[in-house]
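tool=predict chain=A
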Amino acid sequence: MNYTITILRQADRDAEPYRQVVAFSTDDAEMTVATLLKTLNATPNLTDTDGKAVSNIQWECSCLQKKCGACAIRINKRPRLACDTKLSAFKGGNILLEPLKKFPVIADLIVDRSIMFENLKNIGLWLEKEARHTKKGEEIAYEASRCLQCGCCLEVCPNFIPGEDFYSAASFVPTARVLSELPKKDKAELLTSYIDKIYKGCGKSLSCRDICPAQIDVEHLLVNNNAVAVWKRFIK
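tool=predict ok
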């Protein structure tokens, strides 16, 4: 199968972005985009369709097993994990690789996603004392713990703008885990932050539910969080 790979490239934060097109052939339709990128970078004297040299393509990866979220990029305009996207998904043979759009570009397909972690700090998402695991919150805690912090949900969220007050699913999913374990008397400050930074800004489009590579039931977590924060009751 012959593929035309178009990569949106940017040497560094201050450089102008440009597109570079590379022709690629493989008999392995089950090859992932992550393997594709590794293969391109390992190809000696790689040139694009204009005959220009292709420098090392900058991208991030770690586990390559759909567990860390590091390789999240836009593939044919949709945020995905490169390690979980097979070439067989693109029957036409045209593949467009771009960095996530809602984060500052560091280089090529690498973006600065630190806003997600800053938001978690701002919302006060940590335990200051020991919390006891309860059977009641077990399902919620487990589901919330599967969040990869990849940023795909923020990419498609119509209400999330980096630096503004709404923190989106990358914050409300891990918040569900803490809310499920904190005793009632220790929840007040976190609940206030949740209402201000999540509940008031969420338009309930649930685009995050449809894009999550871990297939987390974000609707369930959101409903439960809202019940705890606003209506002061827990939904299993």
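The first helix runs from residue 33 to 42. The chain has two domains: 2-111, 114-229.
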